[in-house]
Amino acid sequence: MSTAVTQFPLNTVRMDAEIKRVFDLQRETALRWRTSTAEERIGRIKRLRDACLADLPALYDAAYKDFKRPAVEVDLTEMIPIMSEASEYIHSLKSWMKPKGVWPTRMTLGLKGYVQYEPRGRCLIVSPWNYPVNLTFGPLIPCLAAGNTAIIKPSEMTPHMSAWMVKIVKQVFPENEVAIFEGDSTVSTSLLNQPFDHIFFTGSPAIGKVVMAAAAKNLTSVTLELGGKSPTIVDESADLDLAAQNLMWGKFVNSGQTCIAPDHLFVHESVKEPFVQKSIEVLKKRYGATPQDSAKSADLAHIVNERHTQRVAGLLADAKQKGAKILYGDFVNVNDHFVSPTLLGDCPADAKLMQDEIFGPLLPIIAYRNLDEVIGRINADQKPLALYIFSRSEANIEKVMKNTTAGGACINHTLVQFSHGNLPFGGVNNSGIGNSHGFWGFRAFSHEKAVVRTRFMMAKLFFPPYTKFVRDNIQNTIKLFKLW
């Protein structure tokens, strides 16, 4: 069983030729898979699932080498989402694949209508580095469930976890079904030149625009899972213990390198001080008595590489230089790719971390008096991928939910919207286009073909020649709409 697993950069001509070879090779499979059964598709998902489970120790080792990520966190953030997604498809795919009947409208009496789900064809999955396995195999599962072939481009910034995925794919699939191309952005550019039937991209809004522009050249449909600055509100009625426990997890799991992590906190001024103290207590209990101790914690992942460590350290230095107050943390070891969990107060609006997506273990805490002001600030920014509110006031919760827009939201919780397989996961505009997970992922990788079948012919009442009888039928139909 051969699989395209080529490490680039190579000579550009050779790289382009190899990509085109595999892309062309998958055409016949994609055509054949249009009539694949639920059992055949489920079998592919099960083989992928079983191969992942059989090689978990190697994944733990790879994640430690790339992030120093705890094995438990690998299970929680990489394996459980994949296993959950696979389970949903294994148990539900047969039902999802069935044509969905629709009721006729008033103008289509006599016609039977239904939606037929068809594979899109050859798909490209471009995945990021922060949760490499989850955000690669997560989309691959619905891609296979919908009957498509796939070419995968994982991130070059997590070489050990990418190598693990290459091994899994090689074990499970021939290259005419699923193939992986490793390498830098030149590989992505070459892949994007191919006329794929669908592209599923997870990454930054900036690169998402590049992907969308490339897709437009071939009129390729896209699903874009992007990011943004996800705001969080802790109001005066909030359960502060719950908020502190949850937010210190949601923010600092994977060292803040999570697209739906709380980016900045708006905390009512009346509860800011006790909330900060409770948060500090949580951090000390979980990761060590001091920020320096947290660098030795076996329960805290590190930054992915030196470049990103310097980027996060630069955000921290810029905030301090512009007057931000360190509430807790402020320890950096660039050589060890480590930045301690850090809470900041009094961050000025022109600080870079108040403008850019942080994607690291820095958490600005902003005191507020009036909820309307917070809503105004949220609405003044780009639409976020996630929004969180901690409150026991139904009026405040309703006000925030009705007056803001986000890809998803949690009330008195964080991150778990990603794992709810019966909800769509996706962004809005700058934070994403389209949805995934569960049935929504199946839809993303399927073409929903509208099919109409005639039972008895009503339309003949409107056929030419346009006699008085036909004209009267048309006019009477128009009048009927006023009554309907």
What does this structure look like?
This protein is an alpha/beta fold and 484 residues long. The chain has two domains: 5-226 and 435-447, Aldehyde Dehydrogenase, Chain A, domain 1; 231-420, Aldehyde Dehydrogenase, Chain A, domain 2, CATH 3.40.309. Helix content is 45%, strand content 18%. The chain is built from 16 helices and 19 strands. α2 runs antiparallel to α4.
Properties at a glance:
single chain, 484 residues, alpha/beta, Aldehyde Dehydrogenase, Chain A, domain 1, Aldehyde Dehydrogenase, Chain A, domain 2, 2 domains, seven-stranded mixed beta sheet, disordered N terminus
Give a summary of the structure in a few sentences.
By secondary structure, the protein is of the alpha/beta class. The protein has 2 domains: 5-226 and 435-447, Aldehyde Dehydrogenase, Chain A, domain 1; 231-420, Aldehyde Dehydrogenase, Chain A, domain 2 (3-Layer(aba) Sandwich).
The shape, in one word, is: globular
Helix content: 40-55%
Task: Work out the helix count.
Answer: 16
Number of domains: 2
- pLDDT < 50 stretches: 1-10
CATH architecture descriptor text of the largest domain: 3-Layer(aba) Sandwich
Alpha-carbon Rg, integer: 26 Å
Structural class: alpha/beta
CATH level 4 superfamily of the largest domain: Aldehyde Dehydrogenase, Chain A, domain 1
How much of the sequence lies in strands comes to 15-25%
- Mean pLDDT over all positions: 95
Topology (elements, then pairings):
Elements: E1 5-7, H1 12-32, H2 38-54, H3 56-67, H4 71-97, E2 100-102, E3 111-119, E4 122-126, H5 134-145, E5 149-153, H6 159-172, E6 178-182, H7 185-192, E7 198-202, H8 205-217, E8 221-225, E9 231-234, H9 240-252, E10 264-268, H10 272-287, H11 291-294, H12 306-321, E11 325-328, E12 332-333, E13 338-339, E14 342-345, E15 362-368, H13 371-380, E16 386-390, H14 394-403, E17 408-411, E18 432-433, H15 438-444, E19 446-454, H16 468-483
Parallel strand pairs: 1-6, 4-5, 4-7, 5-6, 7-8, 9-10, 9-16, 10-15, 14-15, 16-17
Antiparallel strand pairs: 2-3, 3-19, 8-18, 11-14, 12-13
